[in-house]
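In response to reviewer comment 3 from the previous cycle, which asked for concrete evidence that the modeling workflow produces usable outputs, we include below a single protein chain processed end to end. The sequence was submitted unchanged, and the resulting structure tokens are shown without manual editing.
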Amino acid sequence: MILLPSPNPLHLRVNSSYRARPVTPRVCCLQVRPASHYKVPVSTPPTLRHLTASKMAEADSPDCPPTAKRFIPLENNPEVMSSLIHNLGLSKTLAFHDVFSIDEPELLEFVPRPALALLLIFPVSETYEKFRVQEDKEKAEYTGSGHDEEVVWYKQTIGNACGLIGLLHGVSNGEARKQIEPNSSLAKLLSDAIPLKPVDRANLLYESQALETAHQSAATGGDTAAPPADEKVDLHYVCFVKSGSNHLWEMDGRRKGPLDRGELAADEDVLSEKALQLGVRKFLKREEESGGGELRFSLIVLSPTLD
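The workflow returned the following structure tokens.
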């Protein structure tokens, strides 16, 4: 993702124990435009069928290899995100919305409930990377597949596609999954993905023409011009979803697998106070306690449409 200027910057106010600061305006992380539009070469390297589980486990970095296909980032605009996921096949009864505060009830009241998936955009800071490395150190690579999986997780192997992976995590799990239109591109993608192990599942996304076409269609949306595909970015998406067993899961394609962050009550959604304490607030607290002052965070939520 990349920080882009916006005429309507989003401000997320954090807990009073943290310093309330403006966070990222619209953040980009999706999409493909013709190379000629940006005057930069955009090549399509070979597919990742050579990628094996052992190579994934042995990699020093969780980021995509430099030879991997890259998407030109797309603005993190709820309207654009909603259009993209609707084009893929999610019912228009659901849409993405900005979250302007996680502390002020009068602002949270503007968000339709229940909140089915929460996308957090955050800086990949030194503090975060130290935490990630330490937490993942003793974890094995996730190998789950099939209809018995509690959550469907996707490994990211396309550069600058963390927003796409976040969207897919949001609609592939929990109650949102029930709102995928039958016979749609999204329904077929999910049906094909569920039986596959993570490596093959990642290759499925890598080769999906439906995903690239949806990106191309979304290229004209947003308030700002998209940067080139080879732009170096330091912001990242993570998605929080609630599983059928009422657990909050952190879904991130840069990690070794899905992360169970704890149990929620049946009536608590991903924007409930307990879910925020188990998820988003921990990101904020780590940065605040490190003294680095890195608080470029923003949130969008998947919930019922306002129309």
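The longest strand covers residues 235-242. We consider this sufficient to address the reviewer's concern, and the full set will be provided in the supplementary archive.
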